Amino acid sequence: MSELTTYSDAAAHRRRLYFIDLMRQLALFYMFFQHGVLEVLTLRHSRIITLVADFVPICSAMFLFTAGFAAVISQKSNFHQNVSSRLKKGILLIIASSILFIIECGFRLPDMIMASGILNTIGIFTISTIILSWTPQRYNIIICALWTTFLAALFIVFDINRIYIFPFTNAYECIVPTIIYGYIGMTAALIYTQTNNKFIFHISTIIIGLSILGIMSMIFGLHHCFDYTHGRYTVIRTFGADKLMVWNFNTVSFIASLGAVLLISGLCGLTEPLWQHTTAGLPNIILLPGQHALSNYFYHLAVWAIIVVTLGFNSLSEVWFWIVLTGLIITSYPVGCLAQLCKRP
Predict the structure, then answer these.
(1) How far apart are CA 36 and CA 300, in angstroms?
(2) What is the pTM for the complete model shown?
(3) Angle, nearest 10°, between helix axes 251-269 and 178-193?
(4) Residue ranges of the domains in the chain?
(5) What is the 3-state secondary structure (H, E, C) of 226-248?
(6) Which of 312, 196, 208 is nearest to 267 (CA)?
(7) Strands 3-5 and 14-16: what pairing?
(8) How far is residue 163's CA from residue 178's CA, in Å, rounded to a whole number?
(9) What is the 3-state secondary structure (H, E, C) of 36-91?
(10) What contacts 197, CB < 8 A, 6 or more positions away?
(11) Per-residue pLDDT tens for 128-178?
């Protein structure tokens, strides 16, 4: 999925960008942890687990950022030709998200169609990238940067004034501002492809991300940037007599998560030469779960669901939680291997 076109080669030689796989894998394993804390871990757990789980906004931001980055890198040489494949992928993600929503929450209109989960947001984002196919390539960076800035500014203005609109900022899975990280990833990738010195690019990304996160931490406190103290607001969706309470980014966590994602992106990017020069095939083994994150997304949901059905919500002690989580991470490799085999013609 994540391939890099080396622009010094007129033949457009393609190679994989492993640091994107690494970022996706880190986000995936954190999602294993965070969903496990919510669904199966006993409510009487240590404070450190709660603190780590509160950084979940970064996870959502990383998934969309890597989706945006990969959308550009993997299709750079034929970005204007893969419209149908992106449309199909986006529709499938939206349908899959709706099915998962129905399984978990039942038939709850209109959220189950328009705001059913993170896969729905990624699907909408994937379809929206088709717009770049209609613009001249030389203007892609400017258009993407302006669009991203416009959406970010609009979200901040609406959030400050407490204006929440379905399905963007008032839904079971709010589309905004999560989707904005996808456009940020696209903008970063477009800049990346035009940068000759990748090391400088990654160092600059680290400096920018660290500056943003540092400033926000000094003002609000690192942890409070992401928890309900300063970093989130509660969304209450009412369906007849039933109510669902979920969270969404506010301006503080939106900006802080941006800094965190840029910092992580830069740090992971510095490892790219190591991946490229290591033993052939080894990166594809180590990063297999990240390369097949969608398959492992469904897999981990199935595992936690089976535990909930058989043992009940929040039924595992801390010891058993860590045992199951470790097993989940280990078994994500054969799941990735199976997904790889299924992709082969």
Answers:
(1) 9
(2) 0.92
(3) 30
(4) 1-53+278-345, 55-273
(5) CCCCCCEEEEEEEECCEEEEEEE
(6) 208
(7) antiparallel
(8) 17
(9) HHHHCECCCCCHHHHHHHCCHHHHHHHHHHHHHHHHHHCCHHHCCCCHHHHHHHHH
(10) none
(11) 988 877 777 788 899 999 999 999 999 999 999 999 999 999 999 999 999
Residue 139 DSSP one-character state: G
Report the amino acid identity of residue 119. Answer: L
CA dihedral 116, 231, 262, 93 (to 10 degrees): 0
Q: What are phi and psi of 171, to 5 degrees?
A: -160, 170
Closest to 188 measured CA to CA, from 132, 242, 266, 127: 266
Give the whole-angstrom CA distance, residue 69 versus residue 262: 12
Burial 303-313 (b: 16+ CB within 10 A, else e): bbbebeeeeee
Phi, psi at residue 207, to the nearest 5°?
-60, -45
Query: Whole-angstrom Cα distance, residue 277 to residue 170?
Result: 46
The tokens of 256 are what? 């802080």
